[in-house]
């Protein structure tokens, strides 16, 4: 088990002589520990390096406050810098879904939790915002995925677009749009196909669906435990499709949340929600404070 960062830094500073302000050397020594802690929390190396440099600039020369130890002081600077990096613009979890029916495009790789998250989010919009939501699965290559969405829809009391055999994803997207307008829905969610890895066919399909529906939100759903892979996936989808936000799933697992920091630092896209389990209520808005606490250990 790793010691938490506060304990580690306490140890480091105990060994250093007491001075009136944080010296270059003090800060450097402390930041070596911070870097190790970040890497242990699965933050990618370039992001950890940049982050530590940023903190170093802030910390060097700061007067040592009497009420807290130098170690605690560095932890506070690191904590504030984490919050800074993790905080996106706007209210976390706020979706742009005015102008009914608002399309939400759900994208991501197979197994990342896309279908589950589509249903969780639909339930949340229904329960908390009183929205009428229609869900449609475009995953024609995996009939089981289409069935799964229909089953979840029944379970949470959200309508799904009836499945028509042999229809292609674009036709389904168009039908969802028409059905949402005619049926007086506030939001329609499109659960796009997932694949094991990003390929050209998948991207073309998602792109075509995007062009037909002009989504208000395009949310990438990625497994938060996959660290660097999650960040690559986000970069790829953003370059090609343009995403408006990220949902990190499996944050109930024992990962330390470093993917969140790398994600924000590399893509600049807000993390809107985190998935905290398999149940339909296990979706929460992203809280930078919580993740910062987890990364610091
Ligand atoms: P998709 O292929 O991306 O549509 O993935 P699914 O929605 O089918 O999810 C794959 C598996 O991950 C299912 O067993 C889900 O119950 C599970 N899952 C999804 N989100 C979470 C989460 O936040 N935490 C946990 N523990 N499991 C999740």
UniProtKB/TrEMBL annotation:
Any idea where the SRP54-type proteins GTP-binding domain is?
Answer: 270-283
Keywords carried by this UniProt record: Cytoplasm, GTP-binding, Hydrolase, Nucleotide-binding, Ribonucleoprotein, RNA-binding, Signal recognition particle
Q: What does this protein do?
A: Involved in targeting and insertion of nascent membrane proteins into the cytoplasmic membrane. Binds to the hydrophobic signal sequence of the ribosome-nascent chain (RNC) as it emerges from the ribosomes. The SRP-RNC complex is then targeted to the cytoplasmic membrane where it interacts with the SRP receptor FtsY. Interaction with FtsY leads to the transfer of the RNC complex to the Sec translocase for insertion into the membrane, the hydrolysis of GTP by both Ffh and FtsY, and the dissociation of the SRP-FtsY complex into the individual components.
**E.C. code:** 3.6.5.4
What organism is this sequence from?
A: Pseudosulfitobacter koreensis
EC category: hydrolase
Kindly provide the name given to this protein in its UniProt entry. Signal recognition particle protein
> Where's it mainly located?
membrane
Task: List positions binding GTP.
Answer: 108-115, 191-195, 249-252
Assembly, per entry: Part of the signal recognition particle protein translocation system, which is composed of SRP and FtsY. SRP is a ribonucleoprotein composed of Ffh and a 4.5S RNA molecule.
**Localisation per UniProt entry:** Cell inner membrane; Cytoplasm
Which family does the record claim for this protein?
Answer: Belongs to the GTP-binding SRP family. SRP54 subfamily.
Look up and give the membrane topology term. Answer: Peripheral membrane protein
Provide the reaction this enzyme catalyses. GTP + H2O = GDP + phosphate + H(+)
Q: Domain comment, in the record's words?
A: Composed of three domains: the N-terminal N domain, which is responsible for interactions with the ribosome, the central G domain, which binds GTP, and the C-terminal M domain, which binds the RNA and the signal sequence of the RNC.
């Amino acid at each position: 088990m790793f010691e938490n960062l506060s304990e580690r830094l306490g140890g480091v500073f105990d060994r250093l002589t007491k001075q009136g302000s944080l010296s270059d050397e003090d800060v450097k020594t402390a930041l070596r520990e911070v870097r190790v802690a970040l890497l242990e929390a699965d933050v990618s190396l370039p992001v950890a390096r940049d982050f530590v440099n940023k903190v170093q600039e802030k910390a060097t020369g700061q007067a040592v406050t009497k009420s807290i130890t130098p170690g605690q002081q560095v932890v506070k600077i690191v904590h504030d810098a984490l919050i800074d990096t993790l905080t996106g613009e706007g209210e976390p979890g706020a979706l742009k879904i005015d102008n009914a029916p608002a399309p939400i495009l759900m994208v991501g790789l197979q197994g990342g939790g896309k279908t589950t998250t589509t249903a969780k989010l639909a339930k949340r919009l229904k329960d908390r915002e009183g929205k009428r939501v229609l869900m449609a699965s475009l995953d024609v290559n995996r009939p089981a995925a289409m069935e799964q969405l229909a089953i979840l829809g029944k379970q949470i009391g959200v309508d799904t677009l009836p499945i028509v055999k042999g229809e292609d994803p674009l036709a389904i997207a168009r039908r969802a749009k028409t059905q949402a307008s005619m049926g007086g829905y506030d939001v329609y969610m499109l659960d796009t196909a997932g694949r094991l890895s990003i390929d050209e066919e998948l991207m073309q399909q998602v792109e075509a669906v995007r062009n037909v529906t002009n989504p208000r939100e395009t949310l990438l759903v990625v497994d938060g435990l996959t660290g660097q892979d999650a960040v690559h996936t986000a970069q790829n989808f953003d370059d090609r499709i343009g995403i408006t936000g990220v949902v990190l799933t499996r944050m109930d697992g024992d990962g330390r949340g470093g993917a969140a920091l790398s994600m924000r630092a590399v893509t600049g896209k807000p993390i809107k929600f985190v998935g905290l389990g398999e149940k339909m209520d296990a979706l929460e808005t992203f809280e930078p404070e919580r993740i910062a606490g987890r990364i610091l250990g």
